[in-house]
# Entry
Amino acid sequence: MAVSKSRLGRGLGGIIAGGGAKTAVKKTAVKTAPPPPPAPIPAGPYREIPVAAIVPNPYQPRREMDPAHIEELANSIASEGLLQPIVVRPLEKDQFELIAGERRWRAHQKLGLKTIAARVMEASNASSAVISLIENLQREGLNPIEEALGYASLMKDFDLTQEAVSDRIGRPRASIANTLRLLALDREIQGYLSKGMLSTGHAKVLLGVEDPAQRLILARRVIEAGMSVREAERQVRRIKSESSLRGDHRDPDTAAETVVRDLEKQLSSRLNTKVHLKHTPKKGRIIIEYFGNDDLQRILERTGLQ
# Structure
């Protein structure tokens, strides 16, 4: 049977406020009888609690929340009401800690609403972290680095093994292990992965390159050339073959120099002029060559300064 939007929007509120359908009043009822008192909020797991009494979950695995998604959710709640309560656990001094539903809570804050429907449950720190991670994985999914950091947090903060995390999350141990390997990548590559510029498949291929400098260079080339995972695999095989032929065991200084030279090439290509990068761990200089005022104007326009 079709349900109107107005009923959908108030469905959860009706459940919380008293539950069932209203009892019809008989026509013979005394008209002067005082109205019944409002039904109290039930003591069960679902309650209306003050938005201001909620604090974020310190084990929230999601590092970034898109403001546009919060805005969209706020508009939906304003139109249809909250269709699924958040999950919290009680703290001292009439406060509650979020377990799941931070975006719904933030949307209520944005709308200026004073209360929010919540399921209140007792949970340990470990259980709260696990539920939060599962909720995020099942809803929109975390980016691969957020997922890996979530697993790492469970293992570090609660002394769990990969097997224990696998049991509690409900994912194969091999999947947990492969995701955790992503944290061995350079911070820059992790950033590309978080932003969706590289796929998990690309990241696993890049892990096959032992030299961090070569791995970083290849990651940039994969993005710039729009390489598929299969093309990236061919590049890794080529790098390994060349390293084997050279007996390549470069020291860290040589590896850093390779990265600097690669950056020089990228800048030179981007600006269509010679660029010299003088780099040390503490400071450096970028020297850009130009020929006359017109060429300088061109470079300024290309860099967005004019």
Summary: Residues 1-44 have pLDDT under 50 and may be disordered. The CA atoms of residues 51 and 210 lie 49 Å apart. The chain is about 50% helix and 10% strand.
